[in-house]
Design goal:
single chain; TIM Barrel; eight-stranded parallel β-barrel; elongated; binds 3-methyl-2-oxobutanoic acid
Length: about 280
């Protein structure tokens, strides 16, 4: 498959300049091998706090810690060369005050080398986004369904239906005005996501939003069929790697039980000809 992107990782300014241009390709990655697979195809590799659910088996993203984000951020950074690396700020690490957000965002950037952080929230996070961007921390915002707020949102509901639409639009306007270089629109009705994309000057990155967004993001474990606990409508499966892995593991188990693995070619000292293999 051809990949048409430059080898220099884009900067937040490059991403901002892509507003209205070729769609931005974004995927999550939490480990070095997956980041290596994703990196050549993507403009942005996102270490999302979704890792709490898809890697650590948590029920929500609320239990994710700074330590987890930094550890997975460092792993993803080792596999990310030509895409921009963005790391999610976990629940509780930025909401208290702009100063708290800066201290933790600076720690994430220092320890991982990421180019930017992502944080959830609209109008109420605008002052924090302004504070961070004025101090050298580029921010990707995240409005609509903000999973860290499920307890106040009342679940993983579609955002922007009827009365809700004005709030989501104002959230997107607020984070754009505060200096975010892009904004994720999660589970926002398609007509509203299109309206927001036209209304604001920064790229919108949709997940369960609209094909008219300036880019799209998916959780890599969802699109590869590795996370199968539940499947949101927007999580198109491009592969069924979970099924392939399960078949392979079942065959291995059967061969061990039947004593057909390891075969002579997998052990040492039984070579029939030639030099011993390493
Ligand atoms: O945590 C995450 O992976 C995210 C994306 C779904 C945007 O926030």
């Amino acid at each position: 498959m051809s990949v048409s992107k430059s080898l220099r990782a884009p900067t937040p300014a490059d991403i901002l300049a892509r507003k209205g241009g070729d769609p931005l390709v974004v995927l999550t990655a939490y480990t070095t091998p997956i980041a290596r697979l994703v990196d050549p195809h993507c403009d942005i590799v996102l270490v999302g706090d979704s890792l709490g659910m898809v890697v650590h088996g948590m029920d929500s993203t609320l239990g994710v810690t700074m330590e987890m984000m930094i550890l997975h951020g460092q792993a993803a950074a080792r596999g990310t060369k030509s895409a921009m690396l963005v790391i999610d700020m976990p629940f509780g690490s930025y909401e208290e005050s702009p100063e708290q957000a800066f201290a933790n965002a600076a720690e994430v950037m220092r320890q991982t080398g990421c180019a930017a952080v992502k944080l959830e929230g609209g109008q109420h996070m605008a002052d924090t986004i302004r504070f961070l961007t004025a101090r050298g921390v580029p921010v990707m915002a995240h409005v609509g369904l903000t999973p860290q707020a499920i307890n106040t949102l009342g679940g993983y509901k579609v955002q922007g239906r009827d009365a809700d639409a004005a709030r989501v639009l104002e959230d997107a306007r607020a984070v754009a005005a505060a200096g975010a270089f892009s904004v994720v629109l999660e589970k926002v009705t398609a007509p509203l996501a299109t309206e927001i994309t036209r209304a604001i000057a920064i790229p919108t990155i949709g997940i369960g939003a609209s094909v008219d967004c300036d880019g799209q993001v998916l959780v890599v474990d969802d699109m590869l069929g590795l996370f199968t606990e539940f499947k949101p409508k927007f999580a198109k499966r491009y592969a069924e790697l979970g099924d392939h892995a399960s078949d392979a593991i079942a065959r291995y188990a059967a061969e061990v039980r039947a004593r057909t693995f390891p075969a002579p070619e997998h052990v040492y000292g039984l070579e029939t000809s030639g030099a011993p293999k390493p």
